[in-house]
Design a protein that fits this description.
α1 packs across α6, α4 packs antiparallel against α5 and α4 packs antiparallel against α8. This protein is mainly alpha-helical. The chain contains 20 helices and no strands.
Length: about 475
Amino acid sequence: MGYLLWVSCASAIVGSAMQIGLNIGAPNTPEKVIKAFYNHTYADQYGESISLSYLDFLWACTVGVFAAGAIVGSILNRVIIDKLGRKDTLLFNNCFGLVGSGLMGLAKAAKSYRMIIIGRFIVGISAGVNSTAAAIYLGEIAPLNIRGRLVLTMGMGIIVGTVITSILGLPSVLGTADLWPWVLSAPAFTSLFQLATLPFCPESPRHLYINLGCEHSAKRALIQFQHKSKVDRAIEDMMEEQSKQLKERNPNVRDMFSKSVLKIPTMICIILIIGQQFSIHQMLANYSTMLFSAVGFDLLESGSITIVMELCGIVGSFISIAIVEKVGRRILLMFNFSGMVLCNMVLFFSYLAGDRWLGNRYIFALAACCAKMTNRIGGNIANYVLPVELYSQGPRSIAGTICGLVRWLSYCAITFSSELMFKAMGVHMFLILAIPALCCCVFTFTMLPETKNRNFVDIVENFR
């Protein structure tokens, strides 16, 4: 394998995946100092302090508008990913990343909290494009025997970025009244890294050969990415896929839900992505401090456990990358969903026991850490690997758009409903969230074919 394969992977992981993680976690740790800036700026403009309800509204907009931008970015993928190509889409997308980060970084100097909200929306667009385009690029440049590993680095990059920005936002680092703009603008450095490295990397060989018909350029790219002995076999696979694609017209959204060869994998991806998003993992990601405080931990302990939980997620990502090509996608997905069911049961009973035994809260914290690790071991297969592997070259970009849209809409829904669910159902929320996990485990066993070490043509034949 050529060194440019690893340069391309590093560029995609740092410039796309890690950028998503940095933007997701950026407002969380320095929340208090940013809210204080909102209050001070509002008072300067209107001559009175901001009301608590309006401050909460502005903060909800600041956090939630990122997901709204990601939905727009997912839709934008449909327009640009085939026209510009995978590599150029990623390069063009850095315009959104740099502009959005720049607006947030300059907000304090400009004394405008609106610049932060607008900037969050723009970097959200960048995240929506990155989450699909980078996964497709990694899946198409990867040799067959490590394809799953390379695509799963997307999930690892996101959680590493989240942890980094959480640390940067601490009061002892950059989370101060003077330095917090650097936390919000930190993702700009990942864009600059990608702009400095990705132009030297080849375009996806599959896009060059099947979409554009440039056989010579595709061969040259394959030689740079893989060992020369494997190039001829890769070209044969692409020729076979191209011949099948020429017999069919380019699919549209309607085809994705009507033609059997497209409908089945689309429904598999949608169901598993929704099941993955509507899990205790997302609840822990957004409201961990609230949950840990509810079982008896103080604020400092809750923050420490949250960091440990995120580190467990990183460990889970590394485990997933290490074993995915050995045990396969189906087993890891079933492990993820069955593990979510078990963790939900433990969380339910330990929370229900309350303060009857001092050890209950530690069991609750341990279950939360296990849920995070379990999710990272198998959950990202549904988010990133399946939308790449279950489709041939023609429908892959529109499939990525649909899956990205479903992923970010589900993320919005669970983010905004989690606190309401907890207040309405209390401890029974853990039982409710166990149901979709159990259903998805059974669904994975019965409906999902194994894709490990199989080329795209062979995988698609399962659905004909």
